[in-house]
Amino acid sequence: MKNFILNFWHDKVVYMKKLIATHNKMFHADEITAIALLEVFTDFEIEVQRVDHDTKDFSKYDFVIDIGKKYDRIKYFDHHQYKGGKSSAGLIWDYIGLNEEYPKLSKLIDLVDRNDVGIEKAKPFEYSSLIKCYNTRNPNSKEQDEQFYQAVNFSKNIILSMKDMEEGMIKAKEIINNSFNFNRNPKIIELSEFTPYWTSYINGITMPFVKAVVWEDEDDRTWKVKVPSKTVGSFELNGKALKQDNNMEFVHSSGHFAIAKDELTMIKYLSKNI
């Protein structure tokens, strides 16, 4: 879906512009998410126009989302004409074609679909409900249009974050595979480079023998250690809590995390703790 044209005039990349039509007045998570998905996962230069529900002529538009009374998988994505239990967000996600590559994001979009078509109502603080909060009391106001674009930006930020997380999870597997024992201690893994997603692969369920994970923070010029949790997302540690030590730069009061000024200090500290 990376559709763009190259213009070598002044060595700039000129992206293909796409004009999108969606309905005005009240907006919902499905069209907001659909537009955000196109902005995140394509190289199109997106322009959105919000038009009346009874608009008949859509000839100038490249995408018609959640309006138009048509669904053709190419230009028209009005889910009211689709009987498969998907909203406009789900139809655009199918169009982009990355469902399997981003399973967590696909789950979010499925929740948007289920809420929008009446299968499962979104809870008060779930994504679709938060999008709904961007609507104003006057759906015909200029402020409503401004809030629409704010909601698209909100959705983009969430989608970008989930995209980065899922891509980071894939890279984390490679990093862990290239990691090694710290100071020859089989209970301590040193990451070949830091990734925040190691916790999904190193915990009390997947690697119960690992009691600490160490990495060098090249930006801070320090060494850091964290005790894995027993399960993903749990506060229960899969090992002894780290003890306070005056030689360390920092030891968290819970004992799950500590910082040393250099590798030698970390070696000495962990040799007493693990």
Describe this structure in words.
The chain has 274 residues and is an alpha/beta fold. Helix content is 32%, strand content 19%. The chain is built from 6 helices and 12 strands. The chain has helices at residues 29-41, 88-96, 103-116, 127-132, 142-177, 263-273, and strands at residues 5-7, 12-14, 17-23, 45-51, 63-65, 76-77, 180-182, 185-190, 212-217, 222-226, 250-251, 257-260. The strands form 3 sheets. Strands 7-8-9-10-12-11 form a 6-stranded mixed sheet, covered by helices on one side. Strands 4-3-5-6 form a 4-stranded parallel sheet. The chain is elongated, with a radius of gyration of 25 Å. The N and C termini lie far apart (50 Å). Mean pLDDT is 93; it is low at 1-13. Belongs to the MYG1 family.
Write the layout of secondary structure elements.
Layout: E1 5-7, E2 12-14, E3 17-23, H1 29-41, E4 45-51, E5 63-65, E6 76-77, H2 88-96, H3 103-116, H4 127-132, H5 142-177, E7 180-182, E8 185-190, E9 212-217, E10 222-226, E11 250-251, E12 257-260, H6 263-273
Helix pairs in contact: 1-2, 1-5, 2-3
Pfam family, one: MYG1_exonuc
Family: Belongs to the MYG1 family.
InterPro entries: MYG1_exonuclease (IPR003226)
Question: Which terms would index this structure?
Answer:
single chain; 32% helix; MYG1_exonuclease; alpha/beta; disordered N terminus; elongated; four-stranded parallel sheet; 6 helices; six-stranded mixed sheet; 274 residues
